């Protein structure tokens, strides 16, 4: 069995996969033995270079890294670890001897999770490792749950061949517009993620209403209008999405108060929702729908400008969006890659 990949870790199997990096063979061997007795699968390395070779093929759950290594130091190697997207959330415990306070601060700034001073007891070692692995596995579970939610959100678009990739494209447009108007990092992330999930509530809309090619009745339109609130209800239990709920709930508001669900006006509508609305409307107009062909960029922007004059959308944001499109080719890979497969576009399967 590959010690780095124990699957779902059934009872009796490895409790976690660790990498121990220390040039002192005696210390390294002791740490490895203590961890293996505790039930962990352990791979060891005597230098940063050797550890890099092992990390090129495998991803551990936790790394114990000596601060003072020959050649590339532990602190330098820690920067390499954090630069790897696979390892950005992997706990790294620095093993230290007589490290100065300044070096410890530098290690923290480089991404160290915890420190373990030599000499250490097996009880302390086991406690630190167990605690950090529990946190790591919880984080992994949350990421897995979010992946499932993202996949579920994509099924909303996939219910209608004409909206394939819509939410993902709206997220791209919203992110680009947010960058252009210099949203702060928190708001930009909320806009991007909220845009991805803005139509999540449509999971509760029957196909007979959602996919109806003709004009909706008043009763059917009322069903559609419930999707922002329903989306918020379904997603509010996800802590990683809590900052994006305003986008989900308010992306159908209008500046003059004629939107839904709350009839907010002007600046009452969160900026993240207003940014997403511009992206949402533009993508809806420029993609083929069951009731019409896709409109050109120019025609879509003309319609949106008329709607700004009616009081629907934020005119300042639309102006910025127009400026953005001047530098964004229609075949930009960030958009083109989200186009529906030909089979879906032509056959609806």
Can you give a write-up of this model?
This protein has helices at residues 25-38, 48-55, 74-82, 101-110, 122-158, 166-180, 185-196, 207-210, 218-225, 227-235, 245-250, 271-285, 297-310, 315-326, 333-336, 342-347, and strands spanning 17-21, 41-45, 62-66, 92-96, 114-117. Strand 1, helix 1 (25-38) and strand 2 form a beta-alpha-beta unit. Helix 6 packs antiparallel against helix 7 (185-196), helix 6 crosses helix 12 (271-285) and helix 7 (185-196) packs across helix 12. The chain contains 16 helices and 5 strands. The longest helix has 37 residues, at 122-158. The chain is α/β, with parallel strands linked by helices and 349 residues long. It has a 5-stranded parallel β-sheet with strand order 2-1-3-4-5, with helices on both faces. Residues 1-13 and 342-349 have low confidence and may be disordered. 52% of the residues lie in helices and 7% in strands.
Along the chain, the helix and strand elements come as EHEHEHEHEHHHHHHHHHHHH
Q: Between the first and last Cα atoms, what is the distance in angstroms? A: 41 Å
β-strand amount: 5-15%
Count of beta strands: 5
C-alpha geometry: elongated
What would you call the structural class?
alpha/beta
Strand order, sheet with most strands: 2-1-3-4-5
Helix content: 40-55%
Average of the residue pLDDT scores: 84
Question: Rounded to an integer, what's the Rg over CA atoms?
Answer: 26 Å
Spans of at least 5 consecutive residues with low confidence: 1-13, 342-349
- Give the count of helical stretches: 16
**Major beta-sheet overview:** 5 strands, parallel
């Amino acid at each position: 069995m590959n010690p780095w990949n124990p699957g779902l870790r059934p009872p009796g199997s490895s409790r976690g996969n660790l990498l121990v990096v220390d040039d002192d063979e005696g210390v390294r061997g002791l740490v490895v033995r203590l961890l293996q007795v505790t039930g962990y699968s352990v791979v060891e390395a005597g230098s940063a270079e050797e550890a890099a070779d092992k990390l090129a093929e495998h991803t551990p759950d936790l790394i114990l890294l000596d601060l003072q290594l020959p050649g590339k130091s532990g602190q330098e190697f820690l920067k390499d670890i954090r630069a790897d997207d696979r390892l950005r959330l992997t706990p790294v415990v620095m093993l230290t001897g007589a490290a100065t306070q300044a070096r410890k601060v530098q290690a923290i700034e480089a991404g160290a999770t915890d420190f373990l001073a030599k000499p250490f007891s097996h009880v302390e070692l086991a406690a630190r490792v167990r605690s950090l692995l529990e946190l790591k596995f919880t984080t992994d579970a949350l990421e897995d749950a979010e992946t499932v939610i993202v996949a579920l959100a994509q099924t909303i678009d996939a219910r209608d061949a004409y909206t394939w990739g819509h939410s993902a494209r709206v997220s791209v447009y919203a992110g680009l517009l947010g960058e252009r108007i210099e949203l702060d990092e928190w708001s930009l992330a909320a806009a991007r993620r909220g845009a991805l999930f803005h139509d999540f509530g449509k999971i509760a809309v029957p196909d007979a209403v959602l996919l109806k090619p003709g004009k909706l009745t008043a009763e059917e339109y009322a069903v559609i209008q419930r999707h922002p609130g329903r989306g918020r209800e379904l997603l509010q239990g996800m802590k990683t999405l809590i900052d994006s709920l305003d986008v989900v709930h308010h992306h159908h508001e209008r500046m003059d108060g004629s939107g839904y669900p709350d009839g907010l006006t002007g600046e009452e509508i969160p900026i993240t929702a207003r940014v997403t609305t511009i992206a949402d409307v533009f993508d809806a107009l420029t993609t083929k729908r069951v009731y019409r062909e896709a409109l050109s960029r120019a025609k879509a922007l003309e319609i949106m400008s008329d709607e700004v004059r009616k009081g629907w959308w934020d005119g300042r944001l639309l102006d910025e969006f127009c400026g953005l499109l001047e530098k964004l080719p229609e075949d930009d890979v960030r958009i083109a890659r989200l186009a529906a497969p030909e089979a879906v576009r032509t056959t609806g399967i």
